[in-house]
Amino acid sequence: MNINSYSYRLLGTSEPLGQLQKSVEKAFHARSFKLFWRYWNPLLGYILSKYIYKPLSKIMSDRISTILTFIFSGLILHDSWFMPLCYFVFKKPVFFPVTIIFFCFGIVSVAEDSLKLRDHIENDKVHVLINMIYIFGISIAGGLISALMYKY
To answer: pLDDT digits over 21-74, tens only?
Structure first.
């Protein structure tokens, strides 16, 4: 399956602006954190799934493959440009802030899926609230962990 058919199947539209709107809407209304990431950035999700997650899952468990895929995304796709930018702007090194956050995202995604924490929640607004808490809470916690690493 190519990226266009994947995005259309996932979001129900092939129009770029419609895809952006649908991806954000569907992500926050997702009934699991795993689904949140599937909807959040379909292009990146497609690439990570095809070239990182699937090859890893052939040689290790799905849980470890998921966490390693999140780490790869944080390190290669985010921190590889974010850390030099922070150093250039603030003249201080930062140590893998996005990678730490994405590692935490991976842990929460695997834990929630394994424990089936949201299987019995029917209220759509509760799913939106949980997804927002995860995103903001984990981002703040990951940033604090990164700051502590810099301090020591």
So the answer is: 999 999 999 999 999 999 998 889 899 999 999 999 999 999 999 999 999 999
CA atoms within 13 A on the CB side of 120: 2
| Cα atoms in the 13 Å half-sphere on the side-chain side of 135 | 16
Does residue 97 sit within a domain? yes
Q: How many domains does the chain have?
A: 1
Output the pTM of the full model: 0.88
Angle at 109 (CA atoms; ends 107, 111), nearest 5 degrees: 65
Q: Using DSSP, how many helices (H) and how many strands (E) does the chain show?
A: 9, 0
- Whether 63 maps to a domain, the answer reads yes
2 by DSSP, 3-state: which?
coil
Domain of residue 98: give its range: 25-151
Structural domain includes residue 8: no
